[in-house]
Specification:
disordered N terminus; Jelly Rolls; Cyclophilin; 3 domains; eight-stranded antiparallel sheet; 4 helices; elongated; mainly beta
């Protein structure tokens, strides 16, 4: 049983032999050994512990792939195949836990796109096809791509799938009906490359003996659910003998003796990597907390004080499932800072936008940092930074994370799930969990571009443990619309100290420090809450001094104010003869 690639399928069997068949490859079937391939139900690997959330806080995201696993399916793919009058779909569960080399090899072909190519004749996408179908034995694919004969369009002349190096054989699972295995080259045990086949019968023992022939064929997955209905439909397509390796070639809507076109082939129109598990969730008290699924993540959203029991369920591609229930307690949250942000001019070199913040408390905190530029245009900012980049540094200056465009982030789905993904794909975002400490977010322009940008830090934790303690942002203060604007979202009534530093920055090597900053604080409606030019003239001078954060220079402003729940804006501008320069705006919760 061997395959000889690349006959010219543009010629009918009855045409004069005007082509010279070249023997390129020789494929043999010969397969695996012992264990039975059967569906194993998913299991709970890491139970979800109950937790407490604050009412109205952001949803807590739980990665369910860390909670559940499928013992016989590390990965899965969905194949769409062109049948005589329809397109069929079947799923294959891939057993990477037991056959890691083979599954990695197969996914390498899938993810690298080697089962597809641009047809050099038509310049359209050509796909691999089922090139062998033997009744009550196997259907086989992955060896050839349905390209067009350049000398005789539109007739087919298949191209072999470009092969990676052969892989080590991994026998051990029996070639039972519905299992998927790799074909081999020249009957050699360690020779599998791109070709795979589905067993249409129990082929492990006599007469096929695929479990022992040539060292055994490696079974690395199985067709799931009702997928064998589609595989059997493939096997029912009429077969024609065009010489090895196409001596059992299934052809759609074909009459013997005609020239063969690509639409006659049983093409694999698409191969998509899918999750081996589907997730669902429910809450027994959705008025208190809701449970929704976003991809692989469970989102638990706290709404009002009370108790809810959340059930998460994982179902495999064969329909077997397992579930887990945990308790969520929702409580009224304390007053706190839920968001800190600053808008300012971004320059080059050291004149970038620098936002510092503190995570305080005894546990880690989930935060979302964003750099906003293009989205500011809709708010009337004419000189917005059109391509911002974002860095997150530890207190010692070490770079922890960086991002240019949030849609390229490895956890972009989780960023989207927060409901706070940047409005432009050009804007960066970093969603991560940080231990208590001091951190710095830096926004700069890609390729040294300049303009106005916004740096933001959101508290993404939904329960007790740690807090955002303060924001300290340094940037360029201009005139008109180019002043520095700091924003804060307060949850619950909270007293804060807001200060702006200018002259003090000189001792830290800032050459163009703003000599005389002034400060305003406005609410979400734009109404002035408080203002100050020199902190020692403030009616709250005593309280400011008692915080330990009074500005070092008498020319620097500060505000000490109690704020109810809401959004607030601190505006820093210059006064006097030199109204521009570098300034620092800070918000300290009290």
């Amino acid at each position: 049983m061997s395959d000889l690639p690349k006959p010219n399928l543009g010629l009918s069997k009855t045409s004069p032999m005007t082509r010279n068949l070249t023997l390129i490859l020789s494929f043999c079937l010969a397969i695996g050994t012992t264990a039975s391939a059967q569906n194993v139900s998913p299991v709970v690997t890491t139970p979800i512990a109950g937790f407490t959330e604050y009412a109205g806080a952001p949803a807590r995201s739980i990665d369910l792939t860390a909670v559940f696993s499928d013992p016989d399916a590390s990965n899965a793919v969905q194949m769409s195949v062109l049948l005589p009058s329809s397109t069929g779909f079947f799923n294959i569960a891939l057993d990477g836990q037991h056959k890691p080399i083979t599954v990695t090899n197969f996914l390498n072909y899938v993810n690298s796109g080697r089962y597809f190519m641009t047809d050099p004749t038509t310049h359209g996408l050509a796909s691999s096809f089922i090139h062998r179908s033997v009744s009550n034995f196997v259907v086989q694919g992955g060896g050839f791509i349905g390209t067009v004969n350049p000398a005789q369009p539109p007739y087919a002349q298949p191209t072999p799938v470009p092969a990676f190096s052969p892989i080590q054989n991994e026998p051990g699972v029996s070639n039972k009906i519905g299992t998927v295995a790799m074909a081999k080259l020249d009957g050699k045990p360690n020779s599998a490359t791109s070709q795979w086949f589905v067993n249409l019968a129990n082929n492990g023992g006599p007469p096929a003996n695929l479990d022992t022939q040539n060292g055994g064929f490696t079974v690395f997955g199985h067709v799931t659910g009702v997928g064998m209905t589609i595989v059997n439909a493939i096997a029912a397509v009429p077969v024609f003998n065009l010489g090895s390796p196409f001596d059992s070639l299934p052809l759609r809507n074909y009459i013997a003796g005609q020239f063969i076109k690509v639409p006659n082939l049983v093409s694999i129109a698409g191969i998509t990597v899918i999750s081996p598990l589907a997730f669902t969730a429910s809450s027994d008290n959705p008025a208190v907390a809701t449970a929704t699924i976003s991809g692989k993540n469970l989102l638990v959203t706290p709404l009002q004080p009370g108790t809810a029991h959340i059930m998460a369920k994982a179902t495999d591609l064969d329909g077997a499932n397992v579930s887990q229930t945990f308790t969520v307690m929702v409580m009224t949250g304390p007053a706190r800072l839920a968001n800190l942000s600053t808008r300012a001019q971004v320059g080059t070199g050291s004149n970038v936008l620098i936002g510092g913040f503190v995570v305080s408390g005894g546990s880690s905190k989930r935060i979302l940092a964003r750099g906003i530029g293009p989205s500011l245009v809709q708010f009337g900012v004419t000189n917005a930074l059109m391509d911002p980049a974002l860095e997150l540094h530890a207190q010692n200056g070490a770079l922890l994370f960086s991002n240019d465009n949030w849609t390229t982030a490895p956890n972009k789905q989780e960023i989207s799930d927060t409901g706070r993904a940047p409005g432009s794909s050009q804007e960066p975002a970093i969603l991560t969990t940080l231990v208590p400490g001091k951190y710095t977010a830096i926004v700069r322009g890609s390729a040294n571009t300049t303009g106005v940008a916004l740096v933001e830090v959101y508290d993404q934790d939904s329960g007790p443990g740690s807090l955002l303690a303060n924001l300290s942002t340094r940037g360029e203060v201009g005139t008109g619309a180019n002043v520095m604007i700091g924003g804060v979202i307060v949850t619950g009534e909270k007293t804060v100290l807001v200060r702006a530093l200018g002259p003090t920055l000189t001792q830290f090597g800032v050459a163009n420090a703003l000599p005389d900053p002034a400060l305003e604080l406005r609410n979400a409606q734009g109404a002035l809450v408080d203002s100050n030019d020199n902190w020692q003239t403030s009616p709250q001078k005593t309280q400011i001094q008692a915080t330990g954060f009074a500005p070092p220079n008498a020319a620097e402003p500060a505000l000490y104010v109690s704020l109810p729940t809401g959004n607030y804006t601190a505006i820093v501008h210059g006064v006097g003869a030199t109204p521009t320069g570098t300034a620092l705006v800070e918000v300290y919760p009290q």
